[in-house]
Design a protein that fits this description.
By secondary structure, the chain is of the alpha/beta class. It folds into two domains: 204 residues, Alpha-Beta Complex (Spore Coat Polysaccharide Biosynthesis Protein SpsA, Chain A), CATH 3.90.550; 81 residues, no CATH class. It has 13 helices and nine strands. Strands 1, 2, 3, 4, 5, 6, 7, 8 and 9 form a nine-stranded mixed beta sheet that branches. Helix 2 links the parallel strand 2 and strand 3.
Amino acid sequence: MSIYQKKVSIILNCYNGEKYLKDALISIINQSYKNWELIFWDNRSNDNSKNIFKSFKNKNFKYFLAKKHTSLYEARNLAIKKASGEYLGFIDADDMWDRNKLLKQIKLFKDNDTAVVYSNSWLKDENNKRIKKYTNKNLNSGYIYQDLINNYDIQILTAIIKRSILKKHNITFNKRFNIIGDFDFFIRLAKKFKFRYFSEPVAIYRLHRKNLSLLKKELFIKELIFWLKKNKRNLDTIQIKKIEQKIVNLQFLQKKFSKNYFSSITFFMKYLNILLNFKNLIILGTPRFILKKYMWYI
């Protein structure tokens, strides 16, 4: 079978995603690569998501209703069990794909050692206005475990994964997490398998109040602290330091974007040995309303 004939199982986990769901579904239907199935996992939505999905009469659309509401990562594991494709892709109800995403990425699996192909994306706001590329860096291919420890730059909506590798090595999402499950998942994959980076943006990540909420940022930090505690024995001193630096930087940003300016200065002085660099000095001295215009992740 030609690589271009292999099926891609697209996983869409949905919980009350009615606002943007239609755009996500249309972007899947419009794919120029035609051998795909959509696994729509309804995580017990109580909005109009099911009716929106059912309004699309597409033979490749497969609807599954969860027996009970679960965490996102448990829902992803359950949805994957319904997949029949050689490859897996993931899209959330508020995301979109470029029409040539699958076509451009599938051909990069000609290297049999490649387990994951990941790419760049566009960031858009609630009004569908393009803001910027997710990254302007040229990310690495190959065995990128150390790169991900240093600076995690994978968005799951851009990734295509060989399903056989997950099945053979019993690799699943850790359902204990609510925010950093993608990070944990790809870190474990990168320990053993090759990744391939495609620099062209092939997906659209929509920024809105729910995915940029303060609660999610606080939970992200808590989960990362927990992850480090559980994985320290598998990391060397430099890797531990990198993760600790990331945690402190995230905590500093949280302090800065709280309304207590004094607390951000106090925190900065406490971790001066980690935070003392040009970027953080600029952040410390710049008013919040200006920073929010340029730091989309806050």
